[in-house]
From TrEMBL, chain A:
Gene3D superfamilies: TonB-dependent receptor, beta-barrel domain, TonB-dependent receptor, plug domain. It comes from the Bacteria. GO terms for biological process: siderophore transmembrane transport. It comes from Algoriphagus zhangzhouensis. Coiled coil: none annotated. This is TonB-dependent Receptor Plug Domain. Keywords: Cell outer membrane, Membrane, Receptor, Signal, Transmembrane, Transmembrane beta strand, Transport. Its main location: membrane.
TrEMBL record, chain B:
InterPro entries: DUF4249 (IPR025345). This is DUF4249 domain-containing protein. It comes from Algoriphagus zhangzhouensis. It comes from the Bacteria. PROSITE patterns: PROKAR_LIPOPROTEIN. Pfam families: DUF4249 (PF14054).
Amino acid sequence: MTIDPMKQFYFVFLFLLMGTGVSFSQDIQEPRISGFFPGISFQRFMERVEEETPYHFYFKSEDIAELTVNLQADQSKLSDLLDAIFLKTDFHYSFGNEFSVFISKGEKLQTQLPEGFFRNVSRSESDLNGEVDEAFVRNNRFVIGELAPGQTKAKLSGVVRSLENGEPISGAIVFEKIDFTRSVSAPDGSYSIVLPIGKHTIYIQNLGGYIEQRLIDLRGDGELNMSIGESIYSLSEVVVNSGAINHISRPEMGVQTLSVNEMKKLPAVLGEVDVLKGILVLPGVNTVGEASVGFNVRGGAADQNLVLYENSTLFNPSHLFGFFSAINADAVESVELHKAGIPASYGGRLSSVLQVKPKFGRTDKIGGSGGIGLLTSRLSLEGPLGENTTFLVAGRSTYSDWVLDWLEDRADFNASRANFYDVNLNLRHQFGEKDVFEFTGYFSKDNFRFDPDTVYGYQNQNFAAKWTHYFNEQVEASFSGGRDSYDFEIIGEDNPLNSYQFGFGIDQTFAKVDIRQDYEDRHIFNYGIHLNHIQLDPGKIRPYGPESIVIADEVEREQALETSLFFSDEFEINDQWMVSGGLRYNLYNYLGPQTTFTYPDGSSFSEQDVNGEVSHESGKFIKTYHGPEFRFSARYSLNNQSSLKAGVNSMRQNIHLLSNTSVISPTDTWKLSDGFIRPQTGIQYALGYFRNMALNTLEFSAEVYYKTMRNLLDYRSGATIILNDDVEQDVLNTDGRAYGLELFLKKSSGRLTGSVSYTYARSLLRTNEAETKEKINDGDEYSSNFDQPHHAVLILNYEVSKRFNATFSGNYSTGRPITLPVSKFEYGGSERVYFTERNAQRVPDYLRLDLSINLEGNHKVKKLAHSSWSFGVYNLLGRANPYSIYFVPQGGALQGYKLSIFGTQIPFVTYNFRF
Amino acid sequence: MMSKKVIGIACFLIISLLGCREEFEPKISGSDSRILVVEGYLDTDGVSSLLSLSYTQSLQSDIQDFPKVLGATVYLEASSGERFYLSEAGGGDYRFEQDISEEDTFVLKIFLPEGESYSSRELKPLNSTDIIEVDYEKNEDGVEIFITTQGDENTDDFLWTYEETWAFKPPFPSNFKYDQELKDVVERTESEKYDLCYRSEANSALILQSSSNFEDQLVFRQPILQINHGDERLSERYSILITQKALAPDATEFWENLRENTDDLGTIFSPLPSQIQGNMVHDQNPEIPVIGQVGLGKVSQKRLFIDILEVYPWQPEVDDYFGCSLGADTVFVINYEAEFRFGNKVPTYPIYTVNGLVPIGYLYSEERCVDCTLRGSNVAPEFWED
């Protein structure tokens, strides 16, 4: 980057015109405009601006007579608004001293600069310490690079930042409209685009935002850094969705992103915006029941999903046993789910990676947001801490038991109490130009009491730090490390003599180096190392209270070290082909100290087979497993609107959730792979067709996949999971396969937006042939607990006005498989049921409709806080969707029952505010 | 496992939190397979004990009685080859009344009339300990009945089952009846009395506990059941007979599976149902399933009585008696036939004039509110102690 005299000119120019200072966070003094201007005259618009701000307009009345304004603004700069209003008109504006604004027709006053000034190779709007005259940047042609003989194309690169807070914007599209060449900005805001030498109009589109334009005269390779507004919404503009472009241009498939804004519109139980429940609207993602944050991706079990908050693993991502997800939406930027095409830098779980991207504080001023709902209230505060540091702190808590009291009046239970809270702290610090330090911390705690004597509690504790260094334009590296822990506890005080305390816990310490390197424009290398040390306390019971005669017992602690090396290359072969391939090599060491039984070779570890016992010293490698994981995906562009993609990826998983129930339940414990329980492995093949229609406003995709899995765990009859020292005697080595078709259609712009998805999927298991303890269903294939072949989701959002929108959602799926008894017999003084085939029957189909209405308050700039209401009804039909069917002896005879979680409509209301 | 039961209870309560349950009869594409069911815990001290043989039946079947196995040959074979036969006692039951060595091992053999035969795995008599105490304790919600027992090096796992019997009165006890022939109200004879009845209920509950979970293997005050305020069972006099059986380790698993399949299913966090097998094997084809866990040992029983005076005040609320009241009008002699002929109205309280010896009429109530024999027997069971 070279410095030229123009910079100084800009500087002086801005200083005079704007009367503002020089630092990044100084634009507080510039009046901001908020409001809804639906087709009003420009005259009226100016009057309103003059009422609310110190600006004063100077104009000729006859010039502006026919000009109208059709905009929604939220904390926008006047210059941004005027640019939007004057786009494609002959009007110009310029700012004078003391907030005077001059409107002119035909020729811009004063500010036009001769082209000859721009001779520099590199241009950047924001080189001027952030404060930029938007009108200036928009209407001027930037000259980029130097002409070189014979060169016909040149590369334009740079960084896209937010005009509001200077943060890099990820996912912004930079494109030109003639050949539709485009590029999407990376997480650090960087973009690059190759264009023919000559004059171009470059458009920049932020996700769901307004389109900005820049005029360039491209003469050679060069740089253009751009700041774009995020808060103006155009009512008439054709919105190009960055997701839509990504949709067809990225090589990987099965990746889906939901922004928090999208999630906020979805109806939710008791009005809690739920970042995990939000992904259930995506094709291929399903859940067996409402009381479960556990979700199943493409026929995989709930423990096969890696839920990451930045780099921290959340072992229990739920509150209240699954009614709510554990992550506060205020601390989340977006959620990205990888169902296939999982990047090589991630690993450790078989089915999917759910990357929750944390939100970092804004840079301009201290602000915050919050909400008051029926069950919880939340508050977050964010802003700058000094010049280069930002913070975000968010908390959420149940503040009253009144909902439970209300429910208590309507249900037959007593003494139930539940409360939880969670806290997020995110810090970001910028060291100079090339280094960024980020810290994320998360803590959550839950307590429940369903009867007066038994208290359940659990807590998540995660913190991680990440240092990102930009070596040069091509290479960036991030170094991260942190610790994740999860603890669970039950205290039973039914009787002082039998009082006990039961608990288990997991602690994980990790370090990761992740390097991204651009190589010769067409390659993006990603490589690094990931170390993970897991310590597991599988379970312990202790007497509770001085009188208790319960005998303490503890399952021996376990520990293991996971080392993974990864390398991947994303390679754009030509306009049609783009491939991405990766390899992750996983080395797993199960470490002592540990005392285990020994079994003869080839046995399947049943109690009768035990032939000895052996003790391993601390730190000794008891068992080592290692193997490669392959990731490969390719995209072939059929044309600008459609592409074909294919992918293969294999995964390994060394930690298993022991769960003898169909959903994640509180007593499920974790188990590390050991000498007897092997790592789970899986491979998935996928093929997809992606098409955008109607100017990228409609996205369609069709994907098929086939997946095989080995070393899954199922359980023999009567298996004991808690406090079992020899789990290998109770688990059955199981193979699985899953396949499916996913169809997805999404409309992302216009007043009516929404999506419809349909999935046909199967998930089947079979006890491994070598297993001798028990063969479920005689060794035949059987449905997994979450094998729900048909699943359809419809989401419709209608925007009545900018301040009033309504979302309707519908969810249908085949009932989950269940093992039902086929016959009955008399035993122990009562009729009993006899079960035969596992999961051979199904509960009735699931159907649920929800409605939510979101009302925004007005956007007067002087208002202390901006508020919104959302209210609606969950389960509009009041349909009692059966979760389970079972038989209970009643007076010696069997009676069948069906159980549903929500048997009625659940209304909700939430008040949200931000300031 | 200690905490399991508590978890079970808590889980049940979660459902009441938000869930709702409805009666439901699913359509099940069932198999009609008949599986032999063997139940018995044979006493090794020569005390009469029964082994019962029956078959499973389809879940949808409305037939109350399960098909019984008649005419089978059943004996216990000691390791020496000595056989101890069981005698057929009718209704699929086979009686065992022999004193056998508690040091030996045995195999139970069953030969069905059809020619198939079944054998048990090797059985070792369990030297069970006696119940130390059965008692109750008043608590906030009512009364909790508990048992105290102690295991030893041979007996660790226990199974308790219980039967309950209680005396009760209808809301409007009466000693009168309308005599159709005399067309008058007369006093009931002793055998016709319906103001105090006895009701017995077998219970499906299976309570399991391991003494090794506790210090000195003392299972102290293990809760058996809770009776809440308003329950009719304690409204007059109540009796519970608790049976304790010591279990071999494999038997514990069978009963635990049976219990889980009965009690724990259907809740949000329910375990997957287990396949029930036991310790019997089909001789000709071991693949053929058979249900049953037979045991040898000593059954220990204890009976407890609780009188209303011990728990007073105790106001019963019985669904069957909901809405019971006395008729507003007195039925005078002249109307006896018209009002009492059909039996739905029953004379309850006589009304006399100031000096009269013969009632001029009766207050009446509905039959269901007066006649306790609709819900029980008016004959006290043999074991009953007042």
